[in-house]
Design a protein that fits this description.
This protein folds into three domains: 200 residues, Up-down Bundle (Growth Hormone, Chain: A); 51 residues; 237 residues, MFS general substrate transporter like domains (Growth Hormone, Chain: A). The protein is 78% helix and 0% strand. Helix 1 runs antiparallel to helix 8 and helix 9 packs antiparallel against helix 10.
Length: 498
Amino acid sequence: MTGRPSRTPWAVLVVVCFAQFMVVLDVTIVNVALPSIQRGLRFSQSDLHWVINGYTLTFGGFLLLGGRAGDLLGRKKMFVAGVVAFSAASLANGTAQSPGMLIIGRAVQGVGGAFVAPAVLSIITTNFPDGLERAKALAVWSGISATGGAVGLLLGGVLATVASWRWIFLVNVPIGVLVALAAIGIVEESHAPLSRRTFDVRGAVLVTAGLALSVFAVVKSESYGWGSARTWALLVAGVFLIGSFLALERRSPAPLMRLTIFRTPGLAAADGILLLTSATVIASLFFLSLYVQEVLRYGPLSAGLCFLPFSAGIVSGATAARELVPKVGPRAVAVAGLACATAGMVVLTQLPVRGHYASNVLVGLVPLGLGMGLTFLPVTLVGTSGVQAEDAGLASGLLNTAQQIGATLGLAVLSTLAANRTLHAARSSGHSAAAADGAATVSGFHLAFATATGLMVAAGLLASFVLTAREPRRRARIPHDRVAQAAACAHQVAGAIR
């Protein structure tokens, strides 16, 4: 790794952690404002998920490219460029006048975040070459990732209540400007000592476009129908682009995603578990935000407070996992965590029309958060433990990419299922889709939660029968420093989910 540490490394850490905090915060700050955004820009129920998916789709699609570009062109350059893009898109989102403008702005935000996130970790590594100091810096960074989601829930509720949903985006602008100026002044440039000085822009465009078309096909199946030629044309085009991406990666001299890395024991299974759990959790939080505000009639601030136990559950579970993994092994902890999360999902499938937060929502949220906290660390540990040193960045990038792609696809599929069920239930009771009553709306949520529960069960089975053969034979061989490194990556994933 080329580049020299800054003379003020802790000041650099403050700057990059502010950027990390801004990126992580943006995921959850939007969640509690969804009903306000829907009313303000007149989003349809079936298109509202694009406020989330517009961001996660491009973030996941360009994350590996962002890391590669930073290695080649300079981490400082890509960090500043990502912060500027993120801040400019935030300004556009805060002044958006139509759903289309907001979705495009969210997509640009995702691209900016995809360049910021890998640059942050690389800058920290460069500026803290000493093992002990680096461990302290990574602990600060992982703590920022872990708490950003909780702060987003509160801040989103406050801003949507006392000001407007637009301020959940506009608040990023002054922070982004200050971070970019500070980075220009104190962060030293660094590059990776790579033999090939190229990066795969075509690959990033192909995989992102393929995923976008596939998601769009699923969403439009509600209006086009699954028997429509337009639905299948979109779906086939999306699959073709993804297949073209895989073919390109196989023959590229500098691939964005070297396919042979999936021969590493445990990596493919870990990616699959994160994909399934992210699809479940992101969609569940989306529907719970709508349920709490549209069915229980809570305001944005109260809704934000409602989700804090979920964040507390993740932090508690992650803390417990850090102590348990060296003692009982990653597989046992992951299976226990997924079982706990599944129990929480089963509770959420029973949400009533005239429900209560404590007896209906909280009893599902707490085990869901605790289970996810227990799961992320061992899954990340298994996914990264078998890779070579030069592939560590790619492996952790793939875990984060799997999380983003799972969130995108899961939210698209479950939103479409819920919207179709709500429409059918509304028509059965003599209402239009726009005038669907609470019973019809909750009926759609039930189908989404039931399907999400099935995905969580699938993740549990994958952990039970695939991770079993992948964990180290002797648990004592899992050193605490490797657990600490996996914890930092796991906190980043958890922060993105919350």
